[in-house]
Specification:
Number of strands: 7
Strand content: 5-15%
CATH class of the largest domain: Alpha Beta
Low-confidence stretches: none
Distance between the termini: 45 Å
Shape: globular
Number of helices: 15
Order of helices and strands: HHHHEHEHHEHHHEHEEEHHHH
Oligomer: single chain
CATH architecture of the largest domain: 3-Layer(aba) Sandwich
Strand order of the largest sheet: 1-4-5-6-7
CATH topology of the largest domain: Pyrimidine Nucleoside Phosphorylase, Chain A, domain 2
Mean pLDDT: 92
Radius of gyration: 19 Å
């Protein structure tokens, strides 16, 4: 690792094959915590290259415990995290709303690193038991339209750096990798990024693949559609800037989507919204995200149609029933 760090400190870049091998060595726990922290810090001080990100991704996917959910045409709805905005769990709530419309969701997630509550924190607080058993995950999809893939159960490299990431409590390149390494390789992806350059890197990597995807970067730095500003939206057909007003929505304030100061606070907000008692701002944010997810799966579906399907899922309490089914299977 010393030679690798010296190379990086000299402003050199890693090739795709070098990046892949280093991550495989990290997974094999060949480096100590100080080396890991130093290595991760490099990519907080300069942009990661497409080759580096692709190499890290290839290593994680090669080492992953893979599962085959291809029978279900699933979508993953996931953000990088690390935007420092401390919102409630928008992508996780969106996933349950989408599942409530009948669309199968294979949600990939993890514990929070830089905010109060990640998707894994939230599901664990509701009593969900993480598993990497394909038979059980298929049963979840069959009965609840959603399964949850807790990253450390599938990615030994992520597990190997979990304590270092938690100690740093900052966004690292692992935040960038998470949305790209769903071990079930779904054919539909809705990805959010805190950084425009990362959004472009995702687009560069994903446009070579035979999948449907939409990449979201809010102009004011959120890794999801926040309705606090416009957002960049990348698909295989190009990119555009979309403003809340273009969708018939009002702009909202950051304080209106605050997620609280603890997992307990976040869980209270989560349940309130699922029970149909969210504020107008909270509801519109998750419904807008859910509608975009549905249009990624079926690009012929108008936004308005998708939004109404999402409303029926949320206010008809279908999303709430999905959560109850999932934790009780």
């Amino acid at each position: 690792m010393k030679a690798i760090l010296n190379k990086l400190y000299n402003h050199e870049r890693l090739s795709k094959s070098e990046a892949k091998q280093i991550l495989k060595d990290i997974a094999a726990e060949k480096y100590n915590d100080a080396h890991l922290a130093s290595f991760m810090t490099v990519f907080m001080m300069r942009p990661i290259t497409a080759d580096e990100l692709a190499g890290f991704r290839d290593a994680l996917m090669e080492l992953a415990i893979k599962i085959d959910l291809s029978d279900y045409n699933t979508i993953d709805i996931v953000g990088t995290g690390g935007d420092g905005k401390d919102t409630f769990n928008i992508s996780t709530l969106t996933s349950f709303i989408v599942a409530g419309t009948g669309q199968k969701v294979a949600k990939h997630g993890n514990y929070s690193v830089s905010s109060q509550s990640g998707s894994s924190d939230m599901l664990e607080s509701f009593g969900y038991n993480f598993t990497n058993d394909e038979t059980i995950l298929r049963e979840h999809l069959e009965k609840a339209n959603i399964c949850f893939l807790h990253a450390p159960k599938f990615h030994p490299a992520m597990k190997a750096v979990s304590s270092t990431r938690k100690a740093l409590a900052l966004k690292t390149f692992f935040n960038m990798l998470g949305p790209l390494v769903n071990p079930s390789s779904p054919k539909n992806h809705m990805l959010g990024t805190f950084n425009l350059e990362v959004a472009r890197l995702y687009n560069y990597i994903l446009q070579e693949e035979d999948i449907n995807y939409g990449i979201i970067h809010a102009i004011d730095g959120y890794d999801e559609i926040s309705l606090t500003s416009g957002f960049k939206f990348f698909t295989k057909n190009g990119e555009q800037i979309i403003n809340p007003e273009d969708l018939g929505q009002k702009r909202i304030q950051q304080s209106e989507i605050f997620g609280g100061n603890s997992v307990a606070d976040a869980a209270k907000i989560f349940k309130s919204i699922l029970e149909g008692n969210g504020t107008e701002a909270q509801n519109n944010v998750v419904l807008t995200n859910a509608a975009f997810a549905l249009t990624i799966v079926n690009e012929a579906k108008p936004f308005e149609t998708a939004f109404n399907e999402a409303k029926d899922s949320l206010f008809g309490l279908k999303a709430k029933q999905i959560l109850e089914k999932l934790v009780n299977i």
